[in-house]
Amino acid sequence: MTSPAPDSAWPRSSRVAIRRVLVANRGEIAVRIVRACHDLGIEAIVAFSEADRDSLAVRLADRAVCIGPPQSAGSYLNRDAILAAATALGCDAVHPGYGFLAENADFSAACAAEGITFIGPRPDAISAMGNKVEARRIALELGVPCIPGSPQPVGPDEAVRVADEVGYPVMLKAAAGGGGRGMRLARDAAELVEILGSASAEAAAAFGNGAMYVERYVGRARHIEVQVVFDTHGNGISLGDRDCTIQRRFQKLIEEAPSALPPATRHAMAAEALKLCRHVGYTGVGTVEFLYDQDRREFYFIEMNTRLQVEHPVTELTTGLDLVELQLRVAAGERLPLTQEQVPTLGHAIEFRINAEDPAQGFRPSAGTLARWTPPSGPGVRVDTHCYQGYRVPPYYDSLLAKVIVWGADRASAYARARRALAEMEVEGMATSLPFHRWILDNDDFIAGQTSTGWTEQHWGKGS
Amino acid sequence: MELRQDDIAEIVRIFNDSELQELRLDLGGNRLYLSKQAGGVAGWDAAPAGVAAAPAPVMAPPAAAASSRTGATPTPAPDAAAHAAPASVPDSNLVDLTSPLLGVFYRRPSPDKPAFVEVGNEVTADEPVCIIDVMKMFSKVPAGRAGRVVEILAQDGQLVEHGQVLMRLEPR
């Protein structure tokens, strides 16, 4: 892995007050956290499910502990088992990664009650920003621009009234949803009423909360997010933005930094992100997500992810900082090592999610054995993965196999390097998103930055 | 004459207790092939010349993983094939429903709903009989052909492989 900047803003000799971390996650992010711990001389213990016994994270860990069955409800979402493992093995901190328990305020509180450091924000900050309805209320109160819509969860009558007011089409969103799940588009009142019931039932089943709210649908939108980090001493900085416009089913496929928005807009967006975080007493790393309306040239706050994100390496390559190290150090009570003015801005980085999904079949996921696995390497290429040749991809979890992240001095050279890296990569044994990525790197709209969040569904597989 | 399941079970028992390594029986419409050879089974197709070349799928051990018999002869002429150890006698009239994907098998649309089908239920070809969950993408699996559910082999919540037999149906 090559980084164009110094590894860390801290002196290498500076030890972290945390000694032993329980990694309560799986896949590439568990590997990423184990490596960050080892770089800092911290012991890493990996909590794994029965399906992940042969995983790379388990192999790299100083020690590993099986916490339950393959189904995540009994393992990676099993708070009691994870806490029991952490206390029994003498861990002083738990890193939840992303997904699973990463944005669970009760788990954060339960860790604190056991005297274990939760590597993430305090429970009250998770509760405030992790719930979309509450986060939106706070944003409106602070004057942060939001998409016109219902301030509170709605029933069918209220939903139609709000939709008439803001104009169709509207987006129906689960208050407790996230990661693209629990979102539905309605083109008119009949469709809105029709899908509200089923969407609410789905949300209740998936998130244990059926509350839905309605927003105006922003057609030609770019998804732009601001990376922030706060220490426990009241200092917070932005580490730049990321453009995550290329998505399928509202889930990201490609992320790049910096965004191509006008500098004044980028600065204003970062300032709003920091304002929100300061208000809730945020600590640790987090991401404030915005939609940018390319027709109106306005941005709107959509939600905050109170955790490390999948696409964090893009920011690492464009700042030279290690975000997991930042998490560990601020969780241990250290002060941020740099001011806003000292944050480097280095070239251009782009991440491609290599998913076990068939882009020719609507990105349908598949599981199986990796008969061949040859990731790219070389200058300016970083691959974060838990895969190896012969690895059996289990069907229980998400489809992310690897993140290929490339860096270039500017956008054009990053794209050129991406073409080279993705041409080098070979995977056999299952369909992956690689053909989609190779296709998009030669697409004129993509190269010209003329895309929006619905673009992939409109153009992929349509012969353009 | 027609071979019934009881007859086959009896033949298998006698074969198991005998010194025989291989047995081919052709009783008009009924053909039975038994073998004690581990690893590779020669099958009916490797039978001596003069035997009719009707489709008779070779069953790979273990015997429990019976292959589909949907391509059987037009008249009700059941092909019975059994690997001697362990002796298993699939009913030749039945059709296997196999998993189209590697994933997790679920018998109900959601935990609080009743199962799609129970043993004994009549189903249409398009009717969903189970769900395969691959990375939270839930695919409903249709019966594939009309008939009666005779056996449900996969356990609810169990990992199933591509091609694994989930259920057996008696076609209508």
Account of the 3D structure:
The complex is a heterodimer of chains A (464) and B (172). With 464 residues, chain A is of the alpha+beta class. Chain A folds into three domains: 20-128, 3-Layer(aba) Sandwich (Rossmann fold); 148-216, 2-Layer Sandwich (Dna Ligase, domain 1); 221-459, ATP-grasp fold, B domain (D-amino Acid Aminotransferase, Chain A, domain 1, 2-Layer Sandwich). Chain A has helices at 27-39, 56-60, 79-88, 105-113, 123-130, 132-141, 156-166, 189-207, 263-279, 312-319, 323-331, 411-424, 434-440, 444-447, 455-459, and strands at residues 20-23, 43-49, 63-68, 93-95, 117-118, 170-178, 181-186, 212-216, 221-230, 236-248, 251-257, 284-293, 298-305, 348-355, 357-358, 364-365, 368-369, 372-374, 381-385, 392-393, 400-408, 426-428. In chain A, strands 13-12-9-10-11-14-21-19 form an eight-stranded antiparallel sheet, with helices on both faces. A five-stranded parallel sheet of chain A has the order 3-2-1-4-5. In chain A, helix 4 (105-113) packs antiparallel against helix 5 (123-130), helix 5 packs across helix 6 (132-141) and helix 7 (156-166) crosses helix 8 (189-207). Chain B is mainly beta. Helices cover 8% and strands 32% of the residues of chain B. Chain B has one helix and eleven strands. Chain B has one helix spanning 5-17, and strands spanning 22-27, 30-35, 79-83, 95-98, 103-106, 122-123, 128-134, 137-142, 147-152, 159-160, 165-171. In chain B, the strands form three sheets. A four-stranded antiparallel sheet of chain B has the order 4-11-9-6, with no helix packed on it. Chain B has a four-stranded antiparallel sheet with strand order 8-7-5-10, with no helix packed on it. In chain B, strands 1-2-3 form a three-stranded mixed sheet, covered by helices on one side. Chain B is elongated and about 50 Å long.
